[in-house]
Amino acid sequence: MIKLKLIFITLVIQFLVVVNAHAGDFAWLDKLSIEARADASGFKARIAARFHIGDAKVSAIIRDVGGHADAYMVLRLAEMSHLSIDTVIGRYHRNKGKGWGVLAKSLGIKPGSSEFHALKRGHDLNGGGSAKNKKHKHKEKGNGKGGKDKGKGKN
What we know:
Layout: H1 2-25, H2 28-38, H3 40-51, H4 55-65, H5 68-81, H6 85-95, H7 100-106, H8 114-121, H9 131-142, H10 147-152
Helix pairs in contact: 2-3, 2-5, 3-4, 3-5, 4-5, 5-6
C-alpha cells in the first residue's frame, strides 16, 4: 500500500512539473488577454483582420472558448493545422486543462517543429511579426537579395 502511495505521489509531482513547464511556454497569452480586456473591440478587429473572418464570427468564438486570448490561439491552431475552426474548438473543449502544447500536438503540430516554436514565441497580431511575413523574409535571404551578400561570392 505504501509503495502505491509513493508511486502515485511521484506521478503527481512529475505531472505538475510538466504542466508548469508547458504553462511557461505560453505565458504570453496572459499579456495578450490583458491587452484584449483593455481594448476588446480593437482586439476583435485585429483578430478579424488577421484571420480574415467577420466580427460576428470572432465574437461567437470568444463566447464559445470564454476568452479573447483563447480565441486567438484556437484560430492560430486552426490555421497551422489546416483544420476547421469548429474541429479545433471541439478538441479545445475535449482537452481543456491539458495545456496548449497537448492541444497543438493533438492537431498534428509536433513539439520541436517550426510551427510549435512559432506558437511559443507569441502572437502575430501587431503587424510586421506575422508568420507570413517571417516566411517571406526567410525566402528573401535565400534568393541573393541584399547588396552585401551579392558581392561576397564574386571576389
